[in-house]
Structure formats: structure tokens, C-alpha cells
Specification:
Layout: H1 2-28, E1 34-39, E2 42-47
Antiparallel strand pairs: 1-2
Length: about 50
């Protein structure tokens, strides 16, 4: 039982590290400038 808990904790830590890496990668590769969205709600302008 104790070994299963250890595997669960290690698996959770690996998942968190992978998710954090993906988040950082996406934030660094996001284009800089102005984002313009046109949808059914209207026009939205957001500065990145």
C-alpha cells in the first residue's frame, strides 16, 4: 500500500512538471502585439 502511494505522488509530480512546462512554452511563443477577435458577441481588441 505504501509503495502505491509513492507511485501516485511521483506520477502527480511528473504531471505537474509537464503541465508547467507546456504553460511556460505557450507563454513564451505567444505572439506579441494586439489581438483582434470578431465573433457573435462583437469585436474584441486585446493587447498582449
Amino acid at each position: 500500500m505504501r509503495q502505491n502511494t509513492l507511485y501516485l505522488i511521483i506520477g502527480a509530480l511528473v504531471a505537474v512538471i509537464i503541465a508547467l512546462g507546456i504553460y511556460v512554452y505557450r507563454e513564451q511563443t505567444k505572439p506579441k502585439g494586439v489581438e483582434l477577435k470578431i465573433d457573435d458577441k462583437g469585436i474584441s481588441i486585446q493587447q498582449n
